[in-house]
Design brief:
The chain is mostly helical and about 475 residues long. It contains 23 helices and no strands. It folds into three domains: about 5-100, no CATH class; about 105-310, no CATH class; about 380-480, no CATH class. Helix 15 runs parallel beside helix 17 and helix 16 (about 330-340) runs antiparallel to helix 17 (about 345-365).
Amino acid sequence: MLGSKLMEMLKTMSSKDLNKFDLFLRSPFYNKSENIVLLFELIQKEYPAYKKEDYQSRALDKEVVFRKLFPEKKSKDSSLRALMSQLSKLIEDFFVIIELENDNKSKLRNELMLESLLKRRLNNIFHKKLESIRKKDKKQKVRGTDYYYYMFQFSNMSFQHKITTDNRTLNAGLQDLMNKLDLFYIASKLLYVAASMNRQHVVDKDYRINLLNEVLSFSKDSEIGQEPYVKLYYHLCLLLRDEAPQEQDNFQELKKLLHQHPEVLPVMERHQIYAALCNYCAKKIKSSEEVYYEHLFALYKEMLAENMHIMDNFHYYYLNITITAVRLQEFEWAKQFIENYKDRVHPDKQEGGYHYNFAFLHFGLKNFEEALIHLNQVIFEDSYYHITHKTLLICTYYELNESEPLKSAIEALRIYLMRNKSNISEYNHKAFQNFINFIKKLNRIKQGGKKPHDALLDEIEKVKLIVERKWLVEKIAELRK
């Protein structure tokens, strides 16, 4: 019984949820079966023990529960299975009701209520309620695809109401309905186009994007394109599309729009656009445009000021913010950040992130022995941070003249890149592979006691994607002295 769908759902419920569900279950409007109530009571007695992985009591074994509920029946009877199925269905109904009680589901409640009024031909009540909803929605500052969807739905209901009451009316609202549909579609399309483009930069995955040129052209030239939400995603799509030389213009315009319209985007979408801007900066940095470290650092500070560190994937930002601060030689700021934000990282990733950050800080301060101590305490399961850790380890071994560990670390990184190609975006794979190629050449020159040729420096400067470009150029300069 513990592995059943019923128990899987019950394990997600808190004590407060269970108490609410108990009231729900005892309502004859939803449930008239006393046996279902008894089954729930048997399970509830084991709360919260049944939520633990090491739960070993036999109280919820199917045979035990069956005998308590049906003492006169044989255990092979299907009655318990039927009760479990019915209780599961009631939990699903309860989940729906709980969701409808949430404030962010008010538009869904309004949609269902208007639909009911329309079906019952309560025309006066329908009209007054719809006008009340529209007045309230006009004051709403936060936009989003959900908002535009419900605006379309309410317009559709208004149209249905008008043609039902007067089929020949000239003002049925059909034009408004089509405008709302266009707005909902364009806003949704741009949102998911941006998501797919951003995803392509993070993982090695291509998406077929239909009607992209048409949607972008319409967004640029139509009245819909003046909607702040649409404008934001229009410029984000252009930025992610990599259309030089307009890239810088779109980057600056997008940052300006974020400041001009701080309340338009839902919180999570605002976070995601900031993340896309950060990814864009990271890509430009890998293409040798290191001026973007300043842009990236400013974005990170804005994100921290807006408490975006509360997001689930903050461990990524915990590392990236430290790296950016160290690159800009903001050493004291970086140290305070590492200490102050450690506890906000998920416990599973806290120690690894903490030691990696201090390793990077000590490397920036040229305390290479200290950096190595911290690096040896780091384990990353995430593929990107695994290769980032290996890269810093390679640089540290090089600085410490540890020839054999250096060769082993280079080979380990090469093999990891080869075996995990599908988990790493194409441009990241190229950037790290190019680093391997050049660190090998550089180490051979160093071990041979020779001076590097100008051609090697030219090669590094010309290669489009590479990590640690600045460090490699510095090491070549040192060998040429």
